[in-house]
């Protein structure tokens, strides 16, 4: 018996029955495709998350230690005179060691930092330099006093505006033969004195250079 269609008020024709079934199949396939797409996206996201979680995240390789003594020895061979190789003791490490130009003067400069703490200290040997070079580095700061460390007299500098001198708030400087030695940074004066004391013998040798 033919199916009576409510909105038609009569049995549907064979063609109408075929059209209804075709439309029903089309809707079913469409909904199934959408569900499959959503399921595929969920699976893909899950796989990505698993892969990301599984990738090892090792810590960055530590920077190799800078061998200040070896670099100084090589430079000393080229220059034919002593080159500084300071030692600040336990807890301090060299963050940078290179020659750099300040106001036309080349300087062998080592930057020391303390592990796990803020603050820095630089030790620099200005080649063929004088007190003018110190003034350029310290933004015109003048010496306020002197201090004797291991028999070496050092000029003491206390920049009044550290922000204008790269956060330098304390410095020591002394002539060393043809060169000038500068110890400066924002570390405690006791640390600066320790660094100065560690190059006493090298300063004495430089002062003997003709």
Automatic annotation (TrEMBL):
Pfam families: DUF4245. The chain crosses the membrane at residues 34-55. Residues 1-25 are annotated as: Disordered. This is Amino acid transporter. It comes from Microbacterium testaceum (Aureobacterium testaceum). Keywords: Membrane, Transmembrane, Transmembrane helix. InterPro entries: DUF4245.
């Amino acid at each position: 018996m033919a199916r009576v269609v409510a909105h038609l008020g009569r049995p549907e024709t064979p063609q109408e029955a075929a059209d209804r079934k075709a439309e029903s199949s089309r809707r079913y396939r469409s909904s199934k495709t959408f569900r499959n797409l959503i399921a595929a996206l969920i699976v893909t996201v899950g796989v990505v998350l698993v892969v990301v979680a599984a990738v090892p995240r090792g810590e960055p390789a530590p920077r190799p230690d800078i061998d200040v003594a070896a670099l100084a020895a090589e430079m000393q061979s080229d220059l034919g005179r002593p080159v500084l190789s300071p030692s600040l003791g336990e807890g301090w490490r060299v963050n940078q060691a290179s020659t750099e130009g300040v106001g036309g003067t080349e300087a062998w400069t080592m930057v020391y930092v303390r592990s796990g703490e803020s603050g820095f200290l630089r030790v620099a040997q200005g080649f063929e330099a004088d007190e003018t070079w110190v003034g350029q580095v310290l933004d015109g700061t003048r010496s306020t006093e002197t201090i004797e460390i291991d028999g070496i007299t050092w000029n003491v500098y206390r920049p009044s505006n550290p922000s204008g001198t790269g956060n330098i708030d304390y410095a020591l400087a002394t002539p060393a033969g043809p060169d000038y030695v500068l110890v400066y940074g924002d570390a405690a004066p006791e640390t600066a004195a320790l660094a100065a004391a560690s190059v006493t013998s090298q300063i004495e040798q430089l002062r003997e250079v003709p």
